[in-house]
Design brief:
single chain; 215 residues; 6-stranded antiparallel beta sheet; 19% strand
Length: 215
């Protein structure tokens, strides 16, 4: 009964998260909602969303950090936890960040500043393509479990949908702005053509009436 109650509570929490995240329109607000909910659902001390930009994986939203350098993280495929997730397109769990043999240690100095103990990350996928990584960290000496991994994977799926929806909304808004701009330009051109036509007819009329060049 206790296990069933936990599952029901978890599903209810995910439903609430889905309602909030999927209702947000702007990308930055979506990312903020994701990082905030990740801390709550995963009982984490810090959470962040990385998105692929060109050849790099760039931190786009972060909560719970101590150093500004953490918020500016950029990495290549294979580097750290998030870089491994991009390389494998699969979740990654690290119980002891500084001692792990699973990941590279390019960011150990930053991990010491943040006092990172454990980490958990999952890919953000849209139509089968990885667009980023959702990652959480803990400073205390507790470990992420398989249940946490399932929660993060579920949240990552919701996050990917929300990010894609927000991006589509942004593109739609930009298309509407461009269309409005084009319509305004056409309206000005039409007005100018009408004025030119009016002036032309007036000049022709003056010529026909024999008013001469001064008129």
């Amino acid at each position: 009964i206790h296990a069933i109650e936990e599952v029901v509570a978890e599903l209810s929490a995910l439903e609430n998260v889905a309602t909030e995240i999927l209702s947000v329109r702007e990308v930055d607000q979506v990312l903020l909602s994701i990082t905030r909910k990740a801390i709550t659902l995963l009982e984490a001390d810090m959470s962040g969303v990385f998105l692929i930009e060109g050849e790099n994986l760039v931190m786009r939203s972060l909560m719970g950090h101590r150093s500004v350098e953490t918020a500016r993280l950029r990495m290549k495929t294979g580097q750290g936890v998030a870089g491994r997730v991009i390389g494998t397109a699969a979740p990654c769990k690290v119980d002891s960040y500084l001692e792990s043999e699973t990941i590279t240690h390019d960011f150990d100095p930053l991990a010491r500043v943040e006092n990172t103990r454990s980490a958990l990350a999952a890919p953000l996928k849209v139509h089968g393509e990885v667009i980023g990584v959702l990652e959480v960290w803990r400073r205390r000496g507790s470990l992420f479990t398989e249940r946490h991994l399932h929660r993060l994977a579920a949240l990552a799926n919701l996050a990917a949908i929300a990010i894609e929806n927000a991006r589509l909304y942004d593109r739609q808004q930009e298309s509407m702005r461009q269309l409005a701009k084009a319509q305004d330009s056409l309206a000005r051109q039409l007005h100018a053509q009408k004025e030119a036509g009016t002036m032309q007819r007036a000049l022709i009329q003056l010529v026909l009436e024999g008013e001469g060049l001064p008129a």
